[in-house]
Amino acid sequence: MDNDDQLKAFRNEKDIHTDFKDNMTYSDYLTLDQILSSQNRLSDHPDEMLFIIIHQVSELWMKLIIHELDRAIQSIQSGELSPAFKMLARVSKIQSQIIQGWDVLSTLTPADTWNLEMLLVKHQGFNSYQYRMIEFSLGYKTEHSLKIYENEPEIYEKLKHQLNRPSLYDVSIQALSRAGFAIDQHVLERDITKPYTTHESVQKAWQAVYENVDEHWELYELAEKLVDLEDWFQQWRFRHMKTVERIIGNKKGTGGSSGVSYLKKVIDQYFFPELWEVRTTI
User: Fold this and answer.
1) Is residue 153 packed enough to be buried (19+ CB in 10 Å), middle (13-18) or exposed (0-12)?
2) pLDDT tens column, 139-173
3) Residue 270 region, left (φ>0) first, then alpha (ψ -120 to 50), else beta?
4) Secondary structure of residue 276 in the 3-state scheme
5) What is the topology classification, in CATH, of domain 47-281?
6) What ranges do the domains of the chain cover?
7) What is the mean pLDDT of the chain?
8) 3-state DSSP call for residue 188?
9) At CA 64, angle to CA 62 and CA 68, rounded to 5?
C-alpha cells in the first residue's frame, strides 16, 4: 500500500477522531513528554543513550512484574489459586521481554564502551532496587542488602516492607498446608525475613502433588507456573552475565562486585528448591 492508498483508507474511516482539543490524547495519557525527556546522559558517549533506555525499559517491566507478583501472592494467600495462574504466566512473558533487552545491549562491543565504562562504574548503583524487590517477592530475602539503600529512605522503606511480607513461595507452601499436606510447623512459622531453606516435609508434599496430578490439579498448575517463572529468571540472569562478559570481560563490576564471577554465582540460586529436587525423586 503506497502513501496515496493509505491516505484514502484513512479518509474512508469516517469514525476516526482527529480533534482532541477537549480530550486527553495518547501522549497525555502515557505522559510521553516526561518519559521521552528522561534520558539524561552524563557524557558525550553516543552509546550511553542505548544503556539508559535499555535499563529504563527494564525498570518499567520490573515495575509490572512487582505489580503482578503482589496480586498473585494476595490471590494465593486468600485461597484463590486459579486467578494467580494468569498473573504468573504474565510475569514469565515479561521476563522474556527483559531477556530480549539484553540481546540489544549486547550489540555494544569492547571497542564501543571503553569511554563509557568508567562513567558506569562511577555512577551506576550496585543493583536495581526493583530487582531486589522481585527477589524478595520470590523468597530470596537478603536483609543485609538493605544497607545499600540507607541513604534513600523511600526506597529503603519499600524494600523493608517487601522483606517483611510473605513471599510467593511462602504462600504456596501455605496452600499445600491448607490442602491437607503435613507441612512441618517450623516451616509454617519460620522467620519470613530470612532466606528460605529446603525442608523434607515440603518436598514430600510437592512429590505427592506430582504423583496425583488429577487429585491436586490446582496445586500442580501452581507448581508448574513457579517452575516456569524460575526457569525464565535463570535465563534472565544468564543473559545478564553473558552480556556483561561480552562487553567488559572479567573486569570488576559496578558497585565493587567481582563482575562476571559474581553473576555466575547467583545463577545457581533457587527460589523454589523442592520443585527442582522433586524432579529427581518422582
Assistant:
1) exposed
2) 999 999 999 899 999 999 999 999 999 999 999 99
3) beta
4) helix
5) Methane Monooxygenase Hydroxylase; Chain G, domain 1 (1.20.58)
6) 47-281
7) 87
8) helix
9) 115
